[in-house]
């Protein structure tokens, strides 16, 4: 790959020490950046690691059921300094917004009486805008989460089941932030770089943070740092499909990152949205796409605390497939 070749070379220099003073773990098992899962394995995981029926046939929360009152209290006990950090990215930045579905701000200004309003136009799903996916947003083999028939559930009127208002009371839980570039000793991952389960486990070993049932797992790839440094670079890094059983093994409640999670040719010749399909359809895990984790990573590194209170509240759109969102970390 020509784009980000320097970053790829840096990513392979695994024996360095990151400027923060932390030793970078060996990444020899992932140095080739090759697909780690097959289509057959994925299809097995879709059934064997499914949460369908776990909380009953009328369940509308999915893995968010794991966020219990006790879990929220555990998360709130993590607050020490009271610092808050936004985990959302601006709907447009110095480079612009989504070129295929750009954000629109339409000002409405009147004089006599003087009044100022604006109208927002945003098609938020995709690879740029920070948003939260509802459980009705993704389909696999004609079904959405918990076995509901796609064609009977989703119509022109929206989602009959599993819409975004299932989370209308908000998400309050513990988050674990995994800073993969910091682990690998680079400022950001080059486009096309795969993130593996081993990266998460090495991060846990190095930091002492632990992904537990009911947590939000957050993955930083440095996507927005790369966007600032290489404005002409195309594509992003993402999660290798081999990581997917980790979501089940640790009973992750929600998953998020600074990309839309998918990496090119994740399972060669197969569906490109395997992360979305396993997380949302099989596990009932809502996804936070395109978060901005730069400031949170800086704050966590300064405080040496990679676990913190996480809070997010979607817009209450009846029958909606998701919501633009601005989650907040509290340290």
Keywords:
331 residues, Glucose Oxidase, domain 1, nine-stranded mixed beta sheet, two-stranded antiparallel ribbon, 10 helices, disordered N terminus
Explain the overall architecture:
With 331 residues, the protein is of the alpha/beta class. The protein has one domain: Glucose Oxidase, domain 1, CATH 3.50.30. Helix content is 23%, strand content 19%. It contains 10 helices and 15 strands. The strands form 4 sheets. A 9-stranded mixed sheet has the order 1-15-13-7-9-11-12-4-14, with helices on both faces. The chain has a two-stranded antiparallel ribbon with strand order 2-3. Strands 5-6 form a two-stranded antiparallel ribbon. A hairpin with a 4-residue loop joins strand 2 and strand 3. Helix 2 packs parallel to helix 9. The N terminus is likely disordered.
In the sheet with the most strands, the strands line up as 1-15-13-7-9-11-12-4-14
Identify low-pLDDT runs.
Answer: 1-28
- Level-2 CATH architecture: 3-Layer(bba) Sandwich
CATH topology: Glucose Oxidase, domain 1
**Sheet with most strands:** 9 strands, mixed
What share of residues are in beta strands? 15-25%
The Cα radius of gyration reads 20 Å
SS class: alpha/beta
Report the mean per-residue pLDDT as an integer.
92
| CATH superfamily caption | Putative cyclase
Rough outline: globular
CATH class call? Alpha Beta
State the total count of DSSP E strands.
15
**Helix/strand order:** HHHEEEEHEEEHEHEHEHEHEHEEE
Q: How many structural domains can be distinguished in the coordinates?
A: 1
How far the N terminus sits from the C terminus, by CA atoms, comes to 38 Å
Helical residue percent band: 10-25%
Our count of helices gives 10
